[in-house]
Write a structure and sequence with these properties.
The complex is a heterotetramer, with 2 copies of chain A and 2 copies of chain B.
Chain A: H1 2-12, E1 15-18, H2 21-27, E2 31-34, H3 43-53, E3 65-68, E4 71-72, E5 85-88
Parallel strand pairs in A: 1-5
Antiparallel strand pairs in A: 1-2, 3-4, 3-5
Chain B: E1 2-9, E2 26-33, E3 37-38, E4 41-50, H1 54-70, E5 74-85, E6 89-97, H2 100-117, E7 120-126
Parallel strand pairs in B: 1-5
Antiparallel strand pairs in B: 2-6, 3-4, 4-5, 4-7, 5-6
Helix pairs in contact in B: 1-2
The chains are: A alpha+beta, B alpha+beta.
Chain lengths: 94, 132, 132, 94
């Protein structure tokens, strides 16, 4: 069962990543879909993929944090299709 | 011991001082007001984008930290979402406690953390294109 | 650039935020509230004795210092004279300016000086003998 | 003329000193009159005279400041019958 589920995710489901602020402006969108085929399994994978795919994000990557399910997540945090993922760049509230 | 967090549409309404605890001797209120200039250019206001519920969760956690780590008794946080015209209030923090030193320290720490961590973004609306 | 000083009879009334200058981005309001206990004993309130006009003059000078030395734009000071019941406000300081750091620093410096220099004295009114 | 005035003051006019807070409570009065005969000419004279005349004030003298005409005054500030003089002990506003 586990393996079947895993294969279904891998072929059918992608990750959805929310963008805000400068990152949303830069990419002209407030969400990115990461195809399942990219094989992103952790926050670290996602960061590498983003830096490779969106060169314009590279200068900002050092100040971008990744939130998973509304919490800042460490690089080894696993990512799945049911997780809510967001890039949190430089914030400017207050 | 109360922490109250609210994200409100548009500018924050004026409020009167909340009821404080019987031992409170000090209340500090901080208000952030939208300034006329943003990076030297006139604006009509700022539009705030708030990532909910992460922003609310973090503000709530910061409020709890004030109570546990700074010993204050009441924390009330309000932040705007959407358009706030120049001169209007977009952020308000109320901290009350026994003594002034702790409420001042707590309020400043809170705002520093907010500006570092809480997923809220402002976007200037140029004066000529303003809606306010 | 405004400094307003008022000594008011009895507890200070609730107020709404004063109009700030166009470049003000930060307002800090501090309120001193009469606490239930004074030196561990229950009180009904405090009676404030104010040496006028020396107290007003000094508060005005301190306010001017905030503007000249801390770069803030507005300073409003209110202090009670006479009886203020527990839970009521006896002192309010409003400082506004461009940025939060300066208004926080200015407000704290002002209160430190007030508590050191300004000729105002509080006298506890024991709970049983209270008028409030 | 000067001398006549001086003599009149010396014989007819005393200094009036306001008290507040702990000092007023301690002496049971909110004002003290210093007879002209005491020859008080400066804040320093006044402090010495007070410490001599009111032994109960002595422990507080180090934190008592003298205000003359609503300003804190240095020890060598001259005092006259038309000056408003006040003892400012530990204050407790705010």
């Amino acid at each position: 069962m586990e393996q079947v589920d895993q294969r279904q995710q891998k072929t059918c489901e992608s990750l959805r990543v929310f963008l805000f602020g400068a990152e949303a402006t830069l990419l002209g969108t407030s969400e990115i879909f990461v195809p399942a085929e990219e094989g992103i399994r952790t926050v670290r994978d996602l960061r590498s993929w983003l830096a490779g795919r969106y060169t314009e994000l590279r200068p900002l990557m050092s100040q971008i944090r990744v939130a998973v399910n509304h919490r800042f997540a460490a690089d080894d945090t696993p990512l799945g299709p049911n997780d809510e993922i967001a890039l949190i760049g430089k914030v400017s509230g207050g | 011991m109360t922490v109250r967090v609210a994200i409100c549409d548009g500018p924050l309404a004026e409020t009167t001082r909340p009821q404080t605890a019987g031992d409170d001797g000090a209340v500090v209120v901080f208000e952030g007001i939208v300034r006329r200039l943003e990076n030297g250019r006139p604006i009509s206001g700022l539009t705030y984008d708030v990532y909910s519920p992460m922003a609310e969760n973090l503000l709530q956690e910061l409020g709890q930290s004030l109570i546990h780590d700074f010993g204050v008794t009441t924390v009330i946080v309000e932040h705007s979402r959407g358009f706030v015209p120049v001169g209007q209030c977009s952020f308000r923090l109320v901290v009350s406690g026994c003594h002034r030193q702790e409420v001042f320290r707590a309020a400043q720490w809170f705002i520093d953390r907010l500006k570092e961590d809480v997923p809220i973004w402002k976007k200037p609306v140029p004066a000529q294109a303003g809606t306010g």
